[in-house]
Write a structure and sequence with these properties.
Blueprint lengths: L2 H20 L15 H9 L2 H19 L5 H24 L1 H18 L8 H33 L7
Keywords: Membrane, Transmembrane, Transmembrane helix
GO molecular function, one term: transmembrane transporter activity
InterPro entries: ECF_trnsprt_substrate-spec (IPR024529)
């Protein structure tokens, strides 16, 4: 099987897992905090940062769609783009240092993402404070799960390239 076919199959798998994760929600004021980003973070490690970014973007869109886009479609697109950027950064940093990669992913998604809403009218500090703890918790779960699964896949493959 060629590399491109394998990549398409992996992408389909990770996108499907993102949809499944979007159905596993955690308590939050918006109802859009879920296990949707774990497959995107994992894809960033297995396939590459850009593929992971695409999966993370779709994961958030799936969660938002299933929740009825409570913050409006344009704002959820913005969050999806942020998720994609964060997954890409996570994948690149993790390859250099896994611990720093994990910390960067958790902080970007758990603190920077809700902080990006502070300057927006109608959100501010109250929105940040309402979202920071649910997002930090979910970010920790999503990132650590992705890390553990990746380590398991590397071990199964004899530390060779997973993809």
């Amino acid at each position: 099987m060629s590399g491109n076919v394998k990549k398409v199959i992996y992408m389909a798998l990770f996108i499907s897992l993102s949809y499944l994760g979007a159905n596993i929600k955690m308590l939050s004021p918006t109802g859009t905090v879920a296990l949707d980003s774990m497959p995107g973070f994992l894809a960033a490690l297995v396939i590459g940062p850009v593929s992971g970014a695409f999966c993370a973007f779709l994961g958030h869109i799936f969660t938002s769609l299933l929740s009825g886009f409570p913050l409006t479609f344009p704002l959820h697109l913005l969050i999806g783009v942020e998720m994609g950027i964060f997954a890409c950064i996570f994948g690149k940093v993790y390859k250099k240092n896994s611990l720093i990669g994990d910390a960067a992913g958790i902080l970007l998604n758990g603190i920077i993402a809700p902080a990006s809403f502070i300057p927006l009218k109608g959100f501010g500090i109250p929105f940040f404070l309402a979202m920071v703890f649910p997002l930090l918790f979910a970010s920790f779960i999503n990132i650590i799960l992705a890390d553990l699964v990746f380590r398991g896949l590397k071990k199964l493959s004899g530390d060779k390239s997973v993809f």
